[in-house]
Design brief:
Elements lengths: L9 H4 L3 E4 L2 E4 L11 H13 L7 E9 L9 E10 L3 E10 L2 E11 L35 E5 L15 E8 L7 H11 L4 H6 L9 E12 L9 E11 L2 E10 L4 E13 L1
Antiparallel strand pairs: 1-2, 2-4, 3-6, 3-9, 4-5, 5-6, 7-8, 8-10, 9-12, 10-11, 11-12
Helix pairs in contact: 2-3
Length: 273
Amino acid sequence: MITDPVHPGIDQLLKLEPLERNLFRGTSHEGSPQRAFGGQVAAQALTAAGATVPEDRHVHSLHGYFIRGGRTDLPIVYEVERTRDGGSFTTRRVAAIQNGETIFSLSASFQKPADSSEHQARMPHVPAPDDVEARDEDELPIMLSVIEARFISDPAAGLPDVGSGPRQRIWVRAKGRLPDNPLAHVCALTYISDIRLAGTAALPHRDEPGKASLTSLDHAVWFHRPFRADEWLLFDMESRSFTNERGLTHGEFYTTDGRLVASVTQEVLLRRR
């Protein structure tokens, strides 16, 4: 895979400028018009947190709140709080600040690898990535210029509801070759994990009158097993609840050989104007 020279790869979009100890600066591309893409802000915040943690500790979870819409014409400063460095776990908090106000807050936890017994959910039976037709990239959001996506479900309708709410399934991977360090891949997957969760919650409500406004409220990711974000991952999503203008969507990422590598949950605000 060769990254299109017109578009930088995900790793380039997540690069930060160190300002001083615990302070970093980044920029963002558009998500919705003139608004920073939440997945990029969350991934840059995790990049900042990871820069303050020893390499032998790997991210196992992050929890973030989107507080204000970020602007694309101003830089974002990431301030890292070194909350705790324990024997097995390291905790960091990050505030993403723009124009003097916090637009996003992140808590991230890192762990030394440990041996243990295992279990996991079984991967759904789906067509392989090469058996799914690629869509015209011009039809996809701007963030997909750095992501390859193969939609198993109709992007406009999703999959049939089997009693667990609206569903979508997509094969996804980062374009180009990412660095070999694990932090680059978890940050890339954090970016990717924000691409269709809000839309899944909105699927049953797409024909309601009024112009829809979708805003992510919070975002959490748990990383279970090692993976590469530049190799195909199945993104399996379902939204089990929508009420009070808030929809909750859960997603899981599987490798092509069926390993469950990450889980994500997001709450979104859907309003009609």
